[in-house]
Hints:
Blueprint: H1 8-19, H2 30-56, E1 63-71, E2 78-85, H3 105-115, H4 120-131, H5 137-145, H6 147-155, E3 162-177, E4 180-193, E5 198-206, H7 211-223, E6 228-234, H8 240-247, E7 252-255, H9 257-264, H10 270-284, H11 289-303, H12 310-316, H13 318-321, H14 329-335, H15 339-352, H16 361-374, H17 386-397, H18 399-402
Parallel strand pairs: 3-6, 6-7
Antiparallel strand pairs: 1-2, 3-4, 4-5
Helix pairs in contact: 3-16, 7-8, 10-11, 15-16
Amino acid sequence: MEDLIPDPERRAEVLKRMYNGDPVVGQDGIFTDLLQAMIDAALEGEMEAHLEQEKAFGEVNRRNGHNTKQLRSRVGPLQVHTPRDRSGTHKPMLVGKWDRELSTGMDEVIISLYARGNSVEDVRSQLRELYGVEVSAGTISRITDRVLEEITTWQQRPLDPCYSIIYMDAIHYKIRQEGKVKTKAVYNAYGVTAHGQRDLLGMYLSDSEGSRYWGLILEDIKRRGVEDVLFFCVDGLNGFKAVIEDVFPASITQRCIVHMVRTSTRYVSYKDLREVCSDLRKIYSSANRDQAAIALESFGQKWDSRYKEIRPKWEQNWEELMAFMDYHPHIRRMIYTTNPVEALHRAMRKVTKSKGAWVSENALIKQLYLNLMINKKSWQRKAFHWVKIQRELIDQFGDRYEKYIL
């Protein structure tokens, strides 16, 4: 303690505070005094070494007082005293002339807090409480803005030449723009590579969800190196199949069964809901298309009098709904629903559910991207039962698929 704090009065004050149980870190924490004393001692040591080196080379130099400045640190603000020399040749190493922070570690703390769904004001408040550091909203924004270049690089990265399936769905957020709150769609293309690795191919922001914009996304995916996609699984957006066929004409389009069930039961009475869902399940859990058609006919005979709009919806979209029936069981489970991308959306909503509206598009994209990057294990993993799925893909697609895995 004497080496760290040579001043006996200051040393006694620190010991007294320790015995009184004063906070160790944070605003006016005990460790702040210790760290400040260590830095001052190190700066003095740097000056001594500099003067001795100049003396060895025959230079005449001596001390010339101190400069005092405040530094941000993880344990609170520090008031350090940097010694000056008469000739002005000394350049401190520990705390540079223009440094205002003890280390770059605070940037990582800010980004980590922001990535976990905290607003700029939340981050400011937590830094103040945890470290006793007052950081402006502008500084936090500038630090988090550094990730924008990384987002651009990630969004433009090359993709695999073949994907077993790409799930496409959008999630909606509110953003303040020109004094108004507008709803924007974040389009997500979530794929499984030919080797079974799940990955988010891209995250795109637009005014609203529409098949035309999905077409632009597919063009971007193709531009980034995708040559073939075996399956697409999509919701019931009008025109989806047409835009897919324009870009990837050989791909199979499967309409999400779960979305279809939700749409079908939107206006079903609560007392009938369970029974209607059970009868719809008989359709899509059938062994083949013929049995599914019989189950749909039976559904109509039972429910057409009360819910006459349900059966025509299924008949109208029959080919896209029943596409999965042509494949083996494990492929069926992989392609019949967009649930994998829905799981990704649940993770995205978890970090954003407390927000009313974002101040800008950049603020939203930064927070979504950072959160996804710190939670990669939850969505960037191998598809379940991949060995069995791969065997079925080889059986169904032969050389079209095998050439990408050899």
